[in-house]
Amino acid sequence: MPSPTSRLTPQARDAALHAMRASSPSDPLDVLVIGGGVTGAGTALDAVTRGLTTAVVEAQDWASGTSSRSSKLVHGGLRYLQMLDFHLVHEALTERDQLITKLAPHLVRPVSFLYPLEHRVWERGYVGAGVALYDTLATLVPGKRSLPFHRHLTRAGMERVFPDLRHDAAIGAVRYWDASVDDARLVSTLIRTAALHGAHAASRTQVVDLTKNGAGRVDGARLRDLETGEEFRVHARNVINATGVWTEETEALAGGTGGLRVLASKGVHIVVPRDRIRGEVGLILQTEKSVLFVIPWSRYWVIGTTDTPWEHQLQHPVATSADIEYILEHANAVLAKPLTREDIIGTWAGLRPLLQPGTKAGTSSAKVSREHTTASPVPGLTVTAGGKLTTYRVMAKDAVDFALGDEAKDRPSITADTPLLGAVNLGVQRNWSRSYAQRYGWSPAMVDHLLHRYGSLLTDIVDLCEEDESMARPLEHAPAYLRAEVAYAASHEGALHLEDVLLHRTRLNYEIADRGLAALEEISGLMADILGWDDATRGREVAAYEARAAAEAAAEREPSDGAAEAVRLAADDVAPLAPLGSGATGGLKPGSPEDSPGAAGPAGT
Questions:
Q1: Dist. CA 522–CA 338, nearest whole Å
Q2: Any idea of the CA torsion for 369, 374, 376, 377, to the nearest 10 degrees?
């Protein structure tokens, strides 16, 4: 077994793939996790910290699906109180407070919201009682309370903290607290923490079939390395499907019927500059279809979301012109200075994996519970779906418990007490950050940015700056990030392609108006030095990202999902998915013991 490392380098990826190839019927891995979103990453961490030999694979980049396209909130789900889903709210509040206080205090930070009130008596009592219950459920969490209790504000008090709330939009508000997180960084940190404890992690590695033994039990998978095209077999005692909206497609690889049914619901967000709206806190607004958040985030505001069924291919959901107009209309209903399309510097669209427990076609996705379920449609295969980003750790624990069965009693989950990378000694680095700021001329905003992204791993960034002083400089055309952060993404965080940095290691794809195009030359040069790209490779990477950015911009001008998807798919993927259940043997010899086929399936994992 290779020595555990938290550095996700191409060499570490090769070592992980080698370990998977080396598995055999007589010496299988204990757990193979399919899916590199927050649930899959959390499941890999849960399994490996129980002392189980674990591998986790993702067909694209880590967090490339739903887990980089959320509302970026860690919250209890205030609106689920309306559905009387008390268990889910309490569970989520428990996880929220653990992330803030112990597991990832650098990544997860408190943020407060105003719930505007339109009626003086009954609504203040009704909403106040709901938020009080929300706070009460949070007090049931063991340990010190992590966030303040809610407060009632008069109109004057409301206007002090959010001057750009329209004067006639509310007679007052309830202010309450939740938390925010960079969702993609949470996932990459989970993967790196799992790798530190010995998990074999490989992105751009697709499951094209699930395999079975003579008794009909799933005993592994056929994988394809999308970077090389090589296909090989991995053996595992337990396979856990954590593929979100791809759940049913992955289940189909094992054959059989039953399993979990998942509804894909599209959520769109827009991004506007921070100085466009005067306010110190966020807003939560009830709409006729969903909940709209106006979230303060660094140098800008995130506004969303929509909640509409998605009936197209799952890899590239896109924002349409209709989605954007819907968000603008509802935000402008309460803003004193209306927003226009020209104010928007970025958008993103993601798919929520909502369980369908007996639901019928046409059921509104907004009414489907977010509580997760774990099942085993075929022996040897565990499937987990539903839930939300905040409750990833509970989903992971339940999935591994389910896969292990009675063995789980002797191997209990310990992730509730396992801080993620960057959390340990965070206070020490906060103190040392003053010295770093003086040495490199970093502003307080830059220091806060670095601590929020790396926590105590800030020492790694400092080491890069010590080796090369140019690394301490901001990117010329994206000065919110240091040159060292791009190098670090390639040398430590598993970025294999230019889009991995622009979309998931940073947020340049949607936080500056040109989607990061002006910074491509500098970013691609830094990545080329780390990853050994020649000029041709670097040129292909730049061209692929430029095509993607142009297709996304064009899709935003289309009126419907179908039209927007057609425009978006005009740009080729940098590492295209392979057909599933193809029966292709790659380097395997047909008819050999390594070549036991799984069932065919129609879609990607």
A1: 36
A2: 10
